[in-house]
Amino acid sequence: MGDTKIYKNFINGRWVESGSGKTFENRNPANTDEVVGVFQKSNADDVEQALSAAAEAYKKWRLVPAPKRGELLFRVASKLWERKEEISRDMTREMGKVIAETRGDTQEAIDMTYYMAGEGRRLFGQTTPSEMPNKFNMTVRQPLGVCSFITPWNFPIAIPAWKTMPALICGNTVVIKPATDTPLSVAHMMEVFEEEGIPAGVVNMVTGSGGTVGTALINDARVRVVSFTGSTEIGRKVSEGCAPNFKHCCLEMGGKNVQIVMDDANLELAVEGALWGAFGTTGQRCTATSRLIIHEKVHDKMIAMLKAQAEKIKVGNGLDETVKMGPCINQGQLDTVLSYIDIGLKGGAELVTGGERLTGGPYDKGFFVKPTIFTGVTQKMRIWREEIFGPVLSVGTFKTFDQAIEMANDTAYGLSAAIYTQDINKAYTAMRDVYTGIFYVNAPTIGAETHLPFGGTKETGNGHREAATAALDVFSEWKSVYVDFSGKIQRAQIDNQ
Q1: Could you read off the pLDDT of 288-318 as tens digits, one per residue?
Q2: Which distant-in-sequence residues (6+ apart) come within 8 Å of 31 by Cβ?
């Protein structure tokens, strides 16, 4: 393998090879000739070791004062900041998205880590008056135990940080399985934890396939929380796997996000938002703008503007600072995108621009597709209803505001939505009536910040939220505490009638 670095699992504070003796390559989706790294193809025994380490470490970690846990996270955040450029460039090599975006991905991990470090001196509960004399009531958070995380490839360090940092600040321990396409970013995070002296077993990383590693992380009885980000199909299986043992299960899954453009919208702003929402991260975001619905009065004008700007987007290797869109993550995802383009064409949608794989020169070594826009998309078409996870924008039209709301809600998902309008009444009405977990006014469907809850409704999730203080509810249990200093037995609801 020449100079290619071989990365090991991180278990119980040590870097160890898999007991399987097998490895897999992580290749650059912009240039498949480049091997980014070689990683362990782990087996069930490796997972067993990681879970055992996490379970043992939990006994002491849960007793470390939360402010002290926060101090460690503060140091981790500072170290991530020091290594930001290195981590970001490696992320572009393994994931493909442009360097400006991977810097943002790393910054999101930094932000989340600083935020949760601060929670070490909060983790607020409540005190309430008692209905009885000489009695004190309060609530406190308590950790659950071992948490297992199955993370996606599109945000290789941000999403692992979303899960890991709130889990740790609450006093839990962690075993994480990164996506097989992007294990290096999580390996970097483990390196930082090691450098800052996190106790052995508190965080563990096991690389490998979802079928082998992921299944074991879901089914093991020692795991008390499973947090998964990925497809709705797999999320349903995760939920079923957690049900027998009543584990906490946090699911973040698909989206079919919509941008509404009213006839009074600032079209230049709406075009910029649609392009960024649809083609940022090559459309490989759960919050990507997959559907665009435009008022019929401004439809033709906006489509002309979109076409002109989309055809100017430079596609290529994301380490080139002038490139604005990178490749699809792998051959399978490229094939999926191209198949949906074919479905759109056969289904009667009109191709405005794009619609094909980029070939020739360096494109032949990567998974590149042109930014694609369809118009004339109706609510019965598959490209309206199904998540594509690629740079394909489906455009429909509407006549009335009520119709726009109905169209926006016509999806199995409910993650993110946006409206462009200068009418504050319509903005607030849409904010109320579009049934999503995230909503934007005069901004794209992408761009969540770490200090607000992240998550969706319907088949996007199962009611939990990541980020902000909402994440603490996933990784802790409430305990109600009653302290009676009256010196006698007082019977609530009985003695105070």
Answers
A1: 999 999 999 999 999 999 999 999 999 999 9
A2: 317, 362, 365, 366
For 400, the token pair is 């009335």
Give the chain's largest Cα–Cα span. 85
Locate CATH 3.40.309.10 in the chain.
257-441
pLDDT tens profile 312-344: 999 999 999 999 999 999 999 999 999 999 999
Q: Dig out the tokens for 139 from the structure.
A: 């609530």
Q: Which fold has domain 257-441?
A: Aldehyde Dehydrogenase; Chain A, domain 2 (3.40.309)
Determine if the pTM surpasses 0.85.
Answer: yes
Which CATH superfamily does the domain covering 9-253+461-480 fall into?
A: Aldehyde Dehydrogenase; Chain A, domain 1 (3.40.605.10)
End-to-end CA distance of the chain: 79
Bridge partners (DSSP) listed for residue 210? none
Whether 2 shows a pLDDT value over 60: the answer reads no
DSSP H helical ranges for 322-460: 331-346, 382-385, 401-409, 424-433
446 to 61, 273, 441: CA distances (angstroms): 36, 9, 12
Distance, CA of 13 to CA of 217 (rounded, Å): 19
Query: 299 and 404 in contact (C-beta within 8 Å)?
Result: no
**CA angle in degrees (0–180, nearest 5) for 169-171-173:** 105
User: What are the beta bridge partners of residue 372?
Assistant: 392
* DSSP states of 74-103: HHHHHHHHHTHHHHHHHHHHHH---HHHHH
Query: d(Cα 431, Cα 436) in Å, to the nearest integer?
Result: 9
Q: Are 371 and 391 in contact (CB under 8 A)?
A: yes
Quote the Cα angle for 256-346-253, to 5°.
Answer: 20
**Side chain identity at residue 332, one-letter code:** G
DSSP readout, 196-244?
Answer: TTPPTTSEEE--S-IIIIIHHHHH-TTEEEEEEES-HHHHHHHHHHHGG
In this structure, what token pair is assigned to residue 105?
């991905």
DSSP H or E stretch at residue 47? helix 44-61
Q: For residue 218, give the amino acid letter.
A: I
Contact between 91 and 184 under an 8 Å Cβ cutoff? The reply is yes
Catalytic residue positions, numbered:
252, 286
% of the chain at pLDDT higher than 70: 99
Contact 55, 145 (CB under 8 A): yes
- Find the length of the chain: 497
Instruction: Write out the residue limits of the CATH 3.40.605.10 domain(s) in the chain.
Output: 9-253+461-480
CA distance 322 to 340: 28
